[in-house]
């Protein structure tokens, strides 16, 4: 009789252990590692820091959020691989870092967007085109996007010596770009020599005299005090509109209980509108800071911008085809731009 009871007792013990284990798993603290490349004072860093703090607080100890900026974990050009390898759980790279993985992203940097206002960009990126790009990126990179993209702002041209007012002034200049084949093609269209340089390496590259200038934003220049690295001129051309895309490893995402997935989405999305406003304010403040530090800021004339745009548009179909951007996506983006308010 006592031998007959043993299996039943064993079942009860096993069931009790299972229940305790399930309870322990539900209360287990999960690490959540976030990596970005910009410095501590950069507007993107401040936005992601608020998200990290909010998520840590609202998760009530269930997520141990660790946010590292300034490429302390990974440079943005390497962070997608790090996500795939499980070395980091979330990253927020710029759109210009992602077109090498998915040509859909390149549509946003084609010449049709040159000189467009932020509202035009938001309409397309928050609309059907943006939804298609997001879905395609999620499949291509095996990631999850917790919400809309956040802004950096318009990218302009900054130089160490050369004052640029016309497209022809760019001919022969060695211009740093953060990445993006479409941006490189636009630079090449006016005779510039685009060179990809990671942000942590930029100061040393400028110091060695290997660049004549770079394409980036007022905020990025100001937050890194690039006038100390020889930047003396800025030309506002709105060559593209820079945004950052939140990416979470799908493998990590699938480990999160449904309620934590919802919390992550809520914490991210709740800050997007404020983040976009902050980015716009940061660009305006940065422009004033640059001028106060002796950087000469000029706005390219409407005639110069028109010439620049027309040169790019003349090659747009060729550029899109070379980059592998689907023709249907280009047409849809053109329609969304044309039917704006």
Question: Can you walk me through this structure?
Answer:
With 341 residues, the chain is α/β, with parallel strands linked by helices. The chain has one domain: D-Maltodextrin-Binding Protein, domain 2 (3-Layer(aba) Sandwich), CATH 3.40.190.170. It has 14 helices and eleven strands. Strands 7-6-8-5-9-11 form a six-stranded mixed beta sheet, with helices on both faces. It has a five-stranded mixed beta sheet with strand order 2-1-3-10-4, with helices on both faces. The longest helix has 26 residues. The protein is globular, with a radius of gyration of 24 Å. The termini are far apart.
From the structure above, extract its key features:
341 residues, alpha/beta, D-Maltodextrin-Binding Protein, domain 2, 6-stranded mixed β-sheet, 14 helices, 49% helix, globular, disordered N terminus
């Amino acid at each position: 009789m006592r031998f007959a009871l043993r299996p039943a007792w064993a079942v009860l013990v096993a069931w009790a252990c299972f229940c305790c284990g399930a309870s322990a798993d539900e209360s287990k603290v999960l690490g959540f590692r976030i990596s970005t490349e910009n410095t501590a004072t950069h507007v993107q860093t401040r936005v992601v820091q608020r998200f990290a703090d909010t998520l840590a607080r609202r998760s009530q100890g269930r997520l141990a959020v660790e946010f590292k900026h300034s490429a302390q974990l990974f440079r943005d050009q390497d962070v997608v691989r790090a996500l795939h390898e499980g070395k980091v759980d979330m990253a927020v790279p710029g759109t210009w870092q992602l077109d090498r993985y998915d040509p859909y992203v390149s549509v946003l940097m084609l010449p049709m967007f040159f000189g467009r206002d932020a509202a035009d960009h938001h309409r397309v990126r928050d609309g059907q085109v943006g939804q298609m790009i997001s879905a395609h990126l999620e499949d291509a990179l095996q990631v999850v996007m917790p919400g809309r993209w956040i802004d950096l702002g318009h990218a302009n041209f900054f130089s160490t010596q050369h004052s640029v007012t016309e497209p022809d002034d760019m001919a022969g200049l060695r211009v740093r770009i953060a990445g993006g084949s479409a941006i490189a093609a636009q630079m090449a269209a006016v005779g510039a020599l685009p060179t990809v340089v990671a942000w942590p390496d930029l100061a040393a590259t400028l110091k060695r005299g290997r660049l004549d200038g770079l394409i980036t934003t007022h905020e990025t220049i100001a937050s890194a005090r690039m006038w100390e690295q020889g930047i003396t001129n800025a030309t506002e051309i709105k060559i593209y509109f820079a945004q950052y895309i939140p990416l979470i490893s799908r493998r990590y995402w699938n480990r999160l209980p449904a309620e934590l997935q919802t919390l992550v989405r809520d914490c991210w999305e709740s800050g997007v509108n404020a983040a976009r406003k902050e980015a716009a304010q940061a660009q305006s403040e940065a422009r004033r800071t640059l001028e106060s530090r002796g950087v000469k800021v000029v706005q390219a004339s409407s005639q110069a911008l028109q010439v620049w745009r027309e040169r790019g548009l003349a090659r747009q179909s060729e550029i899109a085809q070379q980059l592998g951007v689907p023709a249907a996506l280009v047409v849809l983006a053109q329609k969304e731009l044309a039917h704006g308010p």
